[in-house]
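Shift notes (night). Ran Pyridoxamine 5'-phosphate oxidase while the centrifuge was going.
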Amino acid sequence: MLDNALRKAAAVWIRPDGHEPRLVWALWRDGTLLVAVGGTEQEVPGLADDVTCTVTVRSPTTHSHLVDASATARLTEPDDDTAAALRAARLNSEPRWESVYRLEFA
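Came back to this:
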């Protein structure tokens, strides 16, 4: 269920341990959820390497709760293909991020 929900979701709620949930855009790619932060992108207080997060996915049509999942954030340096996919997924023309996190699900 998590895989299907994340394939369809353009945005998810992320709650790093000890912080409030934050609605963020994210990209589901190759079995992991990628979140770009900083620069011209969103801020997610508490998101850092090796931090446990709760990811909540809601239905894109009804906005009802679909699933909660625990994930660990891993700071990553996206390869060229992944960086291009992150840029293509954004609505703004020149996304610039400081960091990209890969959320790995337990």
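The mean pLDDT is 89. The chain has one domain: 2-105.
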